[in-house]
Every structure is written in C-alpha cells, then in structure tokens.
Amino acid sequence: MRSETVSAASGKSILLVDLDPEPKSRVEGGGKAGSISGRDHGGLSRLRSSSLEIKEKEIREKGSEILREQLDTAKKELKLKDKECERLSQVRNQLEQELEELTASLFEEAHKMVHEANVKQAAAEKQLKEAQGKIDVLQAEVTALKTLVLTSTPSSPNRQLHPQLQPPGTRGAARHVRNKSASGAFTSSPGKPEPSSVSVAAKEHREMDSVLYAEFLLWKENPSVERSSVFLSRIYREDIGPCLSFTRSELSQLVQSAVENNSLTIEPVAMSALPVVKASAIECGGPKKCALSGMSRLCRHRIKLGDKGSYYYISPSSRARITAVCNFFTYIRYIQQGLVRHDAEQMFWEVMRLRREMTVAKLGFYLTDQG
Length: 371
Known about the structure:
mainly alpha; three-stranded antiparallel β-sheet; 9 helices; 5 strands
C-alpha cells in the first residue's frame, strides 16, 4: 500500500492511497486456476492503478489551479496594499510638509509679536516717563498756584511773594497796593501809594445786585469759561466785547480768541530789539503806531497770538484793556479749578471789581509803570 500527500496553497492536505495488489504468492498458490485468477487480478490492479493515477492527476491539476487562483488573489491584494502604502506615504509626506510650514509660520508670527510687544513696551515706557515728568511739573505748578491764590488775589496781590511789584526803595515792606502792571481805575501820583482794595472796600458804599448775584451763583454750581451761561453771556456782552473792540476788528477778534484760549503773550519791547529805522524812533523808545487802534502812540509792549511768529506792537491803553480782560479770565479759571478758598459773596465782589476794571480801561484810564 502506498500513500502520498499533496499540499495546496489553501493549507489543506490531500491523502492519496494506493492499494497494492495481493501478494504474488497468494495468486500463484492456486495452480492453474490460480494463474488465471492471478491474471485477472493483475489486470484489475492495473485498472485500479490507472484509475488512481488519473484521479491523482486530476486532483493535482485542481490543486494547481486553486493555488494559481490563490496566488493571483494574493498578488492583487499585495498590489492594492502597495498602492495604499504609497498613498499613505504621500499623505504622511504632505502632512510633514504642512507641519513644517505651520511651525515656521508660527515661529515667524511669534517673533513678530514679540518684536511688536517690545516696541510697544518701549513706547509705553517712554510715554510713562514723559507723563510722570509732566505730572511732576503740573503738581509743582498747582502747588505754586494754590500758594499764590491763598495768599494773593488780583485785587490784593501779595507783595512778599511778588517783590517785583514793589516800587524801588520800598521793597521788603509788606504792603498790599495795586499792581501797576495791571489796568487800574485811576492814576496814582508818584510817591503816594494807592490804598489797598480792602481799605477801598471798607470805605466805599456798595449794594449787591440780586439778579447778578443769582446769575453768579448759578454759574458757580458748574463753573466754566464757556459763554453759554447767562452769567458769562452778560459779561461778554457788557464788558469783554466792548473792552476788546478796537479799530482793527479782525485783529481784535484774534486777540479775543487768544485771550479765551489762554494763548496770548504780552512782553515788553527792549531797546535793542527795536528796528533801527530812524533816529527819532530810537529816541522815542519804539514803534509809534498801535496795531490795534491804528493811532500814533508810543508802543513799549507787543503781543503774540498763540504759536504764530508775528508780533503786534500795542499802546499802553490797548495793553491795559487786554490786561483787564486777562485778569478776569485768570480769576474765573482759578474758581473753575477750585483754587479760590473764599466764600461766594467775596468771589462775587471780586468779579464785580474785575468787571469795573474792564469798563474803566475801555474808557481810557490806565496806570503807567513807574520805577
């Protein structure tokens, strides 16, 4: 007996069994009959062997066909897997490239943000230093203004704080006299000091106007330099407008705007700064024509409007009128800023006195500098 095993690609095994013919001795033992039957048995064995070979061949062919089919299927699957691996490899490469680009972009953006932050921080630190410096200056100015306002008012300046206001030979004496640089109501003779505002207020008779006082109290609740209030509207109409109304109306409007904006500068004209045109001009001490009134007058002062480079020479009368209005605006700004520590009635009478100065200056009365 013979057996063979055929292995297929699917992993299955086929067992082929070949039955050997009966032993020769068994066939030959029967004599003649035995020889006949032996021949018959041999032919049968050959038939069986032939049949088994055919079956074996068929089985092998079928196994080979199955193996080929399975091999083809495996090759197809391998190609699909190769394609999938190639696609995944491309996706991985693309993702790596995008990741590199994103990383580079993030680093660049972060560097840019850090640079901008550093620039802004430097600018902020610079602004902070400048602001601190301005705050220090403003605090010093406020302290000085408080000291000035608490000890001096436009009606009674403190000569101890302002020794330049005292005439020569009397500096050092603690007296309250009128500021000769400001516009005044009357001209005082040399050597005879004018009585202080406190003494004048004690001697003169005065009566409070209830309408004016009510308007002042209403303005004092929310003080402002805007002319929208009834209080300032009246003063603009009755005092400021007429006082700053000069022959040259266009320049007068510019002067009034500069006074309102606190951007007007008045300065004395030095002899060396005067233009040398004629000998008579030097002898007179300066230009002889007022830029505001147009009249021929000796001009020892000039004004500058804001940041403009032009200077305008003004006569003493024009200077007195401008100074009177400036004194009024200075006082109401002090009230607005809370620097005046007087009661409402004292503030009202000081405002009325400043209004009187504007009216008197408009009429042509002014003080001359002496000493």
